[in-house]
Design a protein that fits this description.
Elements lengths: L6 H67 L6 H5 L6 H25 L5 H22 L6 H29 L4 H52 L25 H23 L3 H18 L5 H18 L2 H12 L1
Helix pairs in contact: 1-3, 1-6, 1-8, 1-9, 1-10, 3-4, 3-6, 3-8, 4-5, 5-6, 6-7, 6-8, 7-10, 8-9
């Protein structure tokens, strides 16, 4: 009997061993490769939540600063209560947004566990808790009374969107806790995701609206500074650029511009320009939009056959989210410092 193997047989055997080894290594690495982007998603979410909280609070700061400068320029009475009343968004209304983002982030993290095949009661319970927190925000939003018509309209819209998203999360959580078939759970995730993405979109649009308002109000503040400067140097004594019929205080005959006042105005104009740059960099809306894309990529992965393409898409979108969120922390700090 001849025990010698033909060269081609040896080659095929070696190829088979190598392919098997590569597959084993690939499968062994897949959970780690998967966990890394999910951890990145959670870290980026935490950054965005903190940034959105500080950014929305800054809307009130700009509003109050503008009010103070206007009262001083027009030489009108100014009191602490008057300043406190210049509030666009209350702390409770800011909390509604951040609690909702946190609940959505935790729901996405639970979806990650589902995608790994680790469906257990704790996964369902975590989702249920996220849904309950979201429903609390929806209820609180409906009870908010804000004299600002834009905020009042948003609170009503937010209440409806958050309630719908809470119901969607609750439905998926219940299927998991009832030990339903994996396919049924995944289909529910897919069918109800429009409610989740709708809420993320709403919060992102709100952040963008806050950015535009702050930008406009800061622009008005800049115009006031330039008007002050123009009046001090007494150029074209009756008007200021960009503003109709802005009257300058009358100076005595022969009175020259005060160098101290001019230097003070110069410092404030420099600070104003720094604030403009800081505000643009600190806008959380683009990062919230990337958060939505990363979430959508995970939903696609959950409801797919977990092929390399959907995993690659997920990793890419999470990296994009991290890249958008990463500079926000420093930018927000720069904004807070510049506005003071």
């Amino acid at each position: 009997m001849n025990f010698l193997l033909h060269p081609s047989s040896i080659t095929r055997s070696l190829i088979s061993i190598i392919v098997t080894g590569v597959l084993v290594v690939s499968l062994a690495c897949r959970p780690e490769d998967y966990q890394k982007p999910i951890q990145g998603f959670q870290n980026a979410s935490n950054t965005v939540i903190a940034a959105d909280r500080a950014f929305l609070s800054n809307e009130n700061t700009i509003e109050q600063n503008k009010y103070i400068d206007q009262q001083v320029f027009e030489q009108k009475p100014l009191g602490s209560t008057d300043i406190d009343n210049q509030v666009i968004i209350t702390p409770d209304e800011i909390k509604l947004r951040t609690v909702a983002l946190d609940a959505l982030s935790k729901y996405t993290a639970s979806l990650a566990t589902l995608a790994q095949g680790k469906v257990d009661p704790s996964t369902g319970q975590n989702m249920k808790t996220a849904g309950t927190n979201l429903q609390t925000s929806a209820t609180n939003a409906g009870n908010q009374a804000n004299p600002n018509p834009d905020q009042a309209a948003f609170n009503k819209k937010f209440s409806g969107a958050a309630g719908a998203a809470a119901a969607a999360i609750g439905a998926v959580a219940q299927l998991i806790m009832d030990h339903k078939a994996r396919k049924e759970i995944e289909q529910s995730v897919k069918d109800t995701d429009k409610e989740i993405t709708g809420l993320i979109t709403l919060i992102g649009n709100d952040a963008q609206g806050s950015y535009l308002r702050q930008k406009n109000q800061l622009g008005f503040y800049g115009t006031q500074l330039y008007n002050d400067y123009k009046c001090e140097i007494a150029v074209d004594s009756n008007s200021a650029p960009g503003v109709n019929e802005v009257k300058c205080p009358q100076k005595g005959k022969g009175v020259q511009a005060d160098p101290v006042i001019l230097l003070t105005l110069a410092d404030r104009i420099k600070s104003f320009r720094t604030q403009q740059t800081a505000l643009e960099n600190a806008n959380p809306a683009p990062a919230i939009a990337q958060m939505q894309k990363a979430h959508e990529a995970l939903v696609v992965y959950v409801s797919s056959n977990k092929d390399p393409k959907t995993l690659s898409d997920l990793v890419t979108e999470v990296k994009n989210f991290e890249s958008a969120a990463q500079p926000l922390g420093q930018a927000i700090q720069g904004l807070v410092t510049a506005i003071k």
